[in-house]
């Protein structure tokens, strides 16, 4: 196997390519709603966790706080989220879903479910279960390493 064949088959390249293609397809399917995949992810974190400080959103999205601030600026202007000062620390800005965002999230779920069904088409139930189990183990292995540092 030559060097380019090894790179094509490496775990990192395969996972990156799969993630990139899923994200690109989701953005194509959800384009009518005017949100990027990063913005969708931000909305989902707020749906799952409730109102959050911008700094926590940056951690969850794994992007710089200034990038979250700019994203939230655009989303607030478009009516997807609101920001308000934390009652205990006015330096902290709490981001919360608007009614507009709450109404659109079920549509995003349908888009994602359809995309994931298409992504996993041709996989048997046992192959799908093995894939999910393997990914959960991979995540756990890497999460354990976070605690070792």
Automatic annotation (TrEMBL):
UniProt keyword annotation of Cell inner membrane present: no
Alphabetical UniProt keywords: DNA-binding, Transcription, Transcription regulation
All residue ranges annotated as the HTH marR-type domain in the record: 8-140
InterPro entries: HTH_MarR-typ, MarR/SlyA-like, Tscrpt_reg_MarR-type_CS, WH-like_DNA-bd_sf, WH_DNA-bd_sf
Keyword Cell wall biogenesis/degradation: no
Pfam families for this protein: MarR
PANTHER family: TRANSCRIPTIONAL REGULATOR SLYA, TRANSCRIPTIONAL REGULATOR, MARR FAMILY
Name listed for the protein in its UniProt record: MarR family transcriptional regulator
Lineage: Bacteria, Pseudomonadati, Pseudomonadota, Alphaproteobacteria, Rhodobacterales
